[in-house]
């Protein structure tokens, strides 16, 4: 069979643009299909990337709005202050970043077609458009987000959290009062845990000029999330709302296919999202590197079965990390506000702020969990029998 393209990529967001760039570097004939005419709109993420970003993709300096070294972790009545000696994360202009990655792909020879894909034949390699036309490809790559048409065509089940966010202006005095700090607050991310938001949390991310992204992901509706964020702001700050956004965060499902016949999934379409934080862009960029090799081999060797190596390698690299993070999420989800306060008190009393500062990593959270377990953190709770049982049962400690 003659195909129109070597690879068709559904979705021209940051993940689609990145895998397209890699494939054209391998001399493949690549096209991106994108229903939006303005890439990056509307903003649907917090726009924070860990220091590891440069290991996985380019990040132009002009797109960086701020750098952060630490975080204030809040329960209802307690605060943990964790901090690195160097930059821990970058706050970026996510819309500009999406557009940079798209332009890089196009300049490298990727074709872009602005049409909506309504269905995919994963066996024959056909993408169908809303205008009844279609194109064929040796491989179809789903980078089409949380409602992925490609994933649906592969028979996957899709589940998502809702996410809401506001761009607000807050003065420094308000932030200092909230964090009980007299120092700078524009190089700290705020994370607020409460029984009303679990399994998610509220974040406060500093940009520039007293502007902050304040958001939330949870199982609540967008309307209720808006109320929760507004109440949080009213209780703690004098503020001005500049913009509002809403989006969705996929929930990882290890039973879903990443590869089926001629189709392959990367990023949100593959629900490659960290359970504890809802972030996933660096994992998706890493997956682009993994997938790029298998896609190239499958096409050049005319052996579509080689695509299966991508799912095996992804699982080998990330399954343990997902397992640890789901356990943490289950522990937190079993807590009420009193439990969270107690948990934070024990961490503070036993100087775990230093341990989190030393071993904490946005992208590899299993390392800090392993360190907690190695140091016997669970047994610090032994005087609180019900709390201790929650932790040991979920982590299987004997």
Automatic annotation (TrEMBL):
InterPro entries: FAD/NAD-bd_sf (IPR036188), Flavin_halogenase (IPR006905), Geranylgeranyl_Rdtase_fam (IPR011777), Geranylgeranyl_reductase (IPR050407). Gene3D superfamilies: FAD/NAD(P)-binding domain. It holds the Pfam family Thi4. GO terms for molecular function: monooxygenase activity; oxidoreductase activity, acting on the CH-CH group of donors, NAD or NADP as acceptor. NCBIfam families: GG-red-SF. This is Geranylgeranyl reductase family. It comes from Methanobrevibacter millerae.
């Amino acid at each position: 069979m003659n195909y129109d393209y070597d690879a068709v990529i559904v979705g021209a967001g940051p993940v689609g643009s990145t895998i397209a760039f890699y494939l054209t570097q391998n001399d493949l004939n690549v096209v991106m299909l994108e229903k939006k005419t303005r890439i990056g709109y509307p903003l649907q993420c917090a726009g924070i990337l860990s220091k590891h970003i440069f290991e996985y993709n380019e990040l132009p300096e002009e797109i960086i709005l701020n750098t952060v070294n630490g975080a204030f972790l809040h329960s209802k009545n307690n605060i943990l202050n964790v901090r690195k000696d160097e930059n821990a994360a970058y706050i970026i202009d996510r819309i500009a970043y999406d557009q940079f990655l798209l332009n890089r792909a196009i300049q490298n020879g990727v074709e872009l077609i602005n049409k909506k894909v309504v269905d995919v034949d994963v066996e024959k390699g056909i993408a169908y458009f809303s205008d009844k036309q279609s194109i064929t490809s040796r491989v179809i790559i789903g980078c089409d987000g949380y409602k992925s048409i490609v994933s649906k065509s592969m028979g996957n089940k899709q589940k998502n959290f809702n996410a809401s966010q506001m761009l607000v202006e807050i003065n420094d005095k308000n932030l200092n009062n909230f964090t009980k700090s007299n120092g700078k607050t524009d190089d700290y991310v705020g994370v607020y845990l409460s029984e009303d938001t679990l399994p998610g949390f509220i974040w406060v991310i500093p940009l520039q000029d007293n502007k902050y992204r304040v958001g939330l992901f949870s199982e609540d509706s967008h309307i209720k999330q808006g109320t929760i964020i507004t109440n949080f702001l009213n209780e703690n700050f004098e503020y001005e709302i500049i913009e509002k956004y809403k989006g969705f965060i996929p929930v990882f499902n290890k039973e879903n296919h990443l590869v089926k016949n001629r189709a392959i999934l990367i990023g949100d379409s593959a629900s490659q999202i960290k359970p504890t934080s809802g972030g996933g862009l660096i994992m998706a960029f890493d997956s682009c590197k993994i997938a790029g090799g298998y896609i190239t081999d499958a096409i050049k060797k005319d052996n579509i079965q080689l695509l299966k190596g991508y799912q095996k390698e992804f699982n080998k690299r990330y399954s343990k990390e997902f397992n640890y993070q789901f356990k943490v999420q289950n522990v937190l989800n079993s807590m009420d506000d009193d439990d969270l306060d107690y948990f934070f008190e024990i961490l503070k009393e036993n100087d775990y702020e230093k341990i989190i500062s030393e071993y904490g990593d946005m992208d590899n959270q299993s390392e800090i969990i392993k360190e907690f377990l190695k140091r016997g953190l669970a047994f610090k709770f032994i005087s609180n029998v019900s709390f201790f049982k929650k932790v040991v049962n979920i982590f299987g400690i004997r």
